[in-house]
Amino acid sequence: MSIKFRLTLLNFLQFFIWGSYLTSLGGYMYDTLHFQGQEIGKVFLTLGIASIFMPAVLGIIADRYINSERLLGLCHIIGGFLLYYASTVSSSSAMFWAMLGVCMSYMPTISLNNTVSYHILKDNNLNPQTDFPPIRVWGTIGFICAMWFVDLMHWTLSSTQLLLAGGSAIITGLYCFSLPPCKPLRTNTNKSISSALGLDAFVLFKNQKMAIFFLFSLMLGAALQVTNTWGVPFLNHFKSTPEFVNSFGVLHANIIISISQISETSFIITIPFFLKRFGIKKVMLMSMIAWFLRFGLFGIGNPGSGVVFLILSMIVYGMAFDFFNISGSLFVENETPASMRGSAQGLFMMVTNGIGAMIGSYGSGWLVQNYTNGQVTDWPTIWYICAGYAIVVAILFTLLFKYKHDPSKLTLLTHDAPLTPVVV
After folding, report:
1. Is residue 188 part of a domain?
2. Which of 258, 261, 273, 236 is nearest to 375 (CA)?
3. Which of 23-32, 34-43, 196-205, 261-270 has the lowest mean pLDDT?
4. Taking the model in full, what pTM does it have?
5. Per residue in 151-179, pLDDT tens?
6. Which of 75, 229, 385, 386 is the most exposed place for a label (fewest CB within 10 A)?
7. In which domain, by residue range, is 330 found?
C-alpha cells in the first residue's frame, strides 16, 4: 500500500468523523431533544473554546514528547468514547460537557493530521507543497460522504449520528498507530504555550492596520458556524407545511447542505486568480458580501419553488468561507515580521475560529430563542438579521481597512503556500 494512499485514507477518515455530526447535531438537539436556542448555542460554544488553546497545547506535546501519529491516534480514540457518551445524554448541560470533551479531543487532530502528513511525505522524499493538496481534498470528500450517509440512513435527527462518528473515530485512532513513526524533532523546545497560541503577536495591535484587520476577523468569525448549526433545523421546520413535507430539501436536508462543502472545494481553486487580479482587500470584501448572500438567500428560500435560492446560498458558501480564511492568512503572512509570523497565524486562528466562532454560536442561539414563539420560529427574520450584520461589516470594512494591492508579493505567496480546503 503506497504512502500517498495511506495518507489519503487518513485524511478521508479524519473528516468523515466530523461530517457525521457537525451539520446535523443542531437538528438533533433542536427537533429531537427539544433544546432551546441558547442551549444549542452553548453546546456549539465548545468548538470555539477548544479551538483557542487545545491545538497549541498538543502541538507543543507533539514537538517535544510524543510521536505525532500516536498522539493523533490517542486523541481520536478518546474522542470516540466521548462521542458514544454524547449519544446517551438528553440534558443540555450534559451535552455541553460531553461535546466540550469531544471538541478538546478532535480540534487538535486537524493540525496534527497535517503534521503527520507533512512528516511522512518528507520522510519518503515527497514534497508536501505539491503532494499534500490532492491528498487533503479527500478529507473534504470524506466530510461530504459522511453527511450523505447520515442523511440517506435518516440519522440526521437521531443519536446514531454520534455513534457513527464515535465508531469512526476509534477506527481512525487505531489506524493512526499503523502509520510510520513521526518522532518529535525537538527543534522548537523553547516555544511556549503563549507563543503557540499567538499571544506574542498581541504587540501587532499597536499597528492600526493590523488592529483593524483582527477586529474584522473576529466579526466575520462570528458568521462561520451559524449555518452549520442552524441549517438542518431551518430546513426541518418546513415539515410542518403540507406543501413542503415531501420535498427533497426536507427529506434530505444534509445532502442539500453538503453542496456548501462541494462549493468550498471548487472556490479554493480560484483563489490564486482572484488574489492576483483583485488583491487581498477586495477578496476579503467579496467574502463578506458572500456571507450577506448566504444568509439573505436562506431567508427567501424554501424547499419548493424557492429551492433555487437555497442552492445558490450553498454555492456562495465556498466563496464566503474560503476567500476570507485564506486571504486573511496571506495578509498576516505578508504584513508581519518573519520572527512573529507563527504567533500571528495562531492569533488569527484564535480570533476567527475561537473567539469569533464562540460569539457567533452563542449569539445565534440567543437570536433563535428570541424569535421562537412556542413551536414556531421566525426563520426569515433570523436570516435577514444575519444578512444585515454581514453587510454592515462589509461596509465598515470598506471604509476603515486600508490596504494597497501589491501583486508581486501575492505571486510569491500563492505559489509557495498550498491552498488546501478546510471543512467547517
Report:
1. no
2. 236
3. 196-205
4. 0.84
5. 999 999 999 999 999 999 999 999 999 99
6. 385
7. 194-419
